[in-house]
């Protein structure tokens, strides 16, 4: 099973989701059964570490994002991943616009796994510390829901 988190630049929301989800997989004993990555729609931050504010919010919850590096979405992601999870509606529209006809991956909003099928993870980039804390809470809730959904999928396929 492979999961890709997608946001605009891959320095705030999607790397936070990658780190948080990895931690939840580890706690659930599923880390060896699910591959996780993140990327951005655009090229602006390729090769850069997550935003320092995102890293600080993550560290406050015991997550270290410092080894992650931003990358841009590529065409092969649509065949490499089973789930491509967008942080907001614009990201999802960009994914759908690039989706190949033969792609059978699930494309959707990440917060659907927290019970919010139409809600976006807000982009905290232009805000303050509180925005990053809000994002952490939303991502944590969606990560828990996604772990449970994947656990059911993996058990059904076993």
Explained architecture:
There is one protein chain. By secondary structure, this protein is of the alpha/beta class. The protein has one domain (2-157): Rossmann fold (3-Layer(aba) Sandwich), CATH 3.40.50. Helix content is 42%, strand content 13%. It is built from five helices and four strands. The protein has helices at residues 13-28, 52-59, 77-80, 89-98, 129-157; strands at residues 2-7, 35-40, 83-86, 106-109. It has a four-stranded parallel β-sheet. Helix 1 (13-28) crosses helix 5 and helix 2 (52-59) crosses helix 5 (129-157). The protein is globular, with a radius of gyration of 14 Å.
Write a concise synopsis of the structure shown.
The protein is α/β, with parallel strands linked by helices. The protein is built from five helices and four strands.
* Count of structural domains: 1
| Beta strands, count | 4
Sequence stretches where pLDDT stays below 50 over 5 or more residues: none
CATH class: Alpha Beta
Largest sheet report: 4 strands, parallel
**How many individual helices?**
5
Order of helices and strands: EHEHHEHEH
Q: CATH homologous superfamily - what is it? A: Response regulator
The share of residues in extended strands comes to 5-15%
At CATH's second level, what is the architecture?
A: 3-Layer(aba) Sandwich
Provide the CATH topology. Rossmann fold
């Amino acid at each position: 099973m492979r999961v890709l988190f997608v946001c605009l630049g891959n320095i705030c929301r999607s790397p936070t989701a990658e780190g948080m989800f990895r931690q939840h997989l580890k706690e659930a004993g599923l880390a060896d059964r699910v591959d996780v990555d993140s990327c951005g729609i655009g090229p602006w931050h390729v090769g850069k570490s997550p935003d320092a504010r995102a890293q600080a919010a993550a560290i406050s919850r015991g997550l270290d994002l410092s080894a992650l590096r931003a990358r841009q979405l590529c065409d092969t992601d649509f065949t490499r991943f089973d789930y491509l999870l967008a942080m907001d509606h614009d990201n999802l529209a960009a994914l759908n616009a690039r989706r190949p006809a033969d792609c059978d991956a699930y494309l959707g909003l990440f917060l659907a796994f927290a019970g919010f099928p139409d809600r976006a993870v807000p982009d905290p980039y232009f805000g303050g510390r509180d925005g990053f804390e809000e994002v952490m809470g939303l991502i944590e809730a969606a990560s828990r829901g996604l772990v449970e959904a994947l656990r059911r999928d993996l058990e059904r396929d076993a």
